[in-house]
Request: fold
Amino acid sequence: MDIFTGLLNGFSIALTGTNILFCFLGALIGTAIGVLPGLGPAATIALLLPMTYVIGSPVTAIIMMAGIYYGAMYGGSTTSILLNLPGEAASVVTCIDGYQMAKKGRAGAALGIAAIGSFIAGTVAVLGLTFFAPPLAEFALDFGPPEYFALTTLGLLLAVTLSGGSIVKGLIILFVGLLLAMVGLDPISGKIRFTFGSIVLQGGFDFVTLAMGVFGLGEILYNLESTLKTEIVTTKLGKVFPTLKDWADSKWAIFRGSVIGFFVGIIPGGGAVISSLASYAIEKKYSKHPEEFGHGAIQGVAGPESANNAASSSSFIPLLTLGIPGNAAIAMIFAALMIQGITPGPFLVAEHPDVFWGVIASMYIGNAMLLVLNLPMVGIWVQMLRVPYGILAPIIVLFTTVGVYSVQNQIFDIYSMLFFAALGYGMRKLNFDPAPLPLAFVLGPMVERSLRQSLLISGGDLTIFVTRPISGTLIAIFVLLIVGQTAFFIKRKMTTGKKTPTT
Reply:
């Protein structure tokens, strides 16, 4: 099946009444979640994972989950611009100039260019996904256990090093996730391990329970501690559609943001946050008027918003073709596929073309829906910001508890969720980024299985990882990354040590 035939088949699937409805619901929920501060796409998808059992159709379920993810990128700009409070982590940079534009009475223009830039960038990224993913999937068919071990290990390390937080803390959370993934049956020998005599743990921890605990209930507990002020900077938005001058000033920022976001999104751990930061830095560096940045430069809104939306779409490439989730939200979608009995990876195109092409086609439709949701309906999202978080939180907790119990009808799952909620809350209190946890939990079995299979093939010879071209290249990148990070850490320590305290 060639690309155009596959895409046409994808549109025939995505344009069915049920899939259009769930695509719209995903886009709507994603936008709402992006607008509301305190609850991101990863937490939302985690809370809705039990729905995948009810929906039934894998294509429909993933279409909705994907819509929530890239829809949140759209919605996050609204809160950033009007409140100076990012509704989603990828919209942090938008606060800098978006809020300043709002204070000058140009909130409408900022929201408009953010929506248009997001639409263009999202569409460009989906086009890249359409033509780049199938060849990559064919290339990945040559992967054996050594290649998968090298790829997954490199992906986990990149996810830690590029997250922007403490690398040491990231590695700790990574190992915690790997340990949790090892509970239950040994994937090679079938022996029971780390269950401490508990029968219910023989099947391991359930990902839905972990995700809803860490990213759902844990997120809510942490947010309830802080008082989220929702004082809107202005009730007069002004013209939502940007002027010709605004478009002239923003068009190249949108283009550059789209390209940056697409390529950064492919890298595990890169994602929307890194791409938006990179886009803002580049726009400021190459601007003819860099002094305007921080004071309401429209390029400072257009570039980052384009970048984070492009990254959200391109992050599906490693998921669909290699089976490697690059961030926490994509890990939730990975879990949704596994719940449906579908293993993402190089065989997905051949074995489940309806899922592969149906999801890609739905992203074209979803981007168009989001443009409509974000431009004419700005006033509705503004009013939604007035809903106190204290009202939303108990409702979310209720749905979370019911959702966890409904998966297996076991009270143990509720206790497990409370444990993971405490873990998630503790991580946030101690400034640990929880994102590596679901990635390690999802990829842990793949890492262990590919490592042990490789050693069985080679008779215990570790050189199998460096003598094969693909795995050897990936291992070399892995080593260079570690050496580079170590050198950077030592240099920073030496620089800090030379500074004398001022009296």
Summary: The chain has a mean pLDDT of 82. The two ends are 72 Å apart (CA to CA).
